[in-house]
Amino acid sequence: MAGCNKPQLYLTTIVLTVVFLTANQAVEGRGKGLCARTAYPKLCRPLVKGSNPRLATLSTICSLETKTRREIANASKYKNGNKQVTICHEKLRDAAFNLKKAKYSLHKRHTKMLGIFLTRAVSDYGVCVNTFVDSHQVNTVQNAADELRKTGTNCLFLSTLIRRSNRRRKRSNKSLRS
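RESULT FIELD:
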């Protein structure tokens, strides 16, 4: 081992460790699919099948719409006499509107507007949750709104993957034309 010194050995060890860990994370990420990097993977996995970010986003928006409509009906039962439930009811209706617009934007492949409408929906859910937190109330409407907020956050992340895949497609089309 005539030409091997300690600093070179340490550097080689560090490089090999980083390469191994990076490769290992990439394999783990591929195995778990699109939900692996979302904020709430356990909420994401039942909604997302396959590796197409556009279909994953659509599936998640549809699930959010269904659950939001259910919670609007639930909140309407309790909104009389409870200011927080009334505010949450209004915000859930706003979220439903924004989800409808997000789905339309996805259909039209307008990813910037998709992101804007999903952000608005997540914000609406967040206002609903915070209304209850500020008043020190805990109830089923708040719990459902919190789950919707988390699922919406996952959906927003999935929508960013669409943008990336569209950019790649545009780049590959440009290179084919050249």
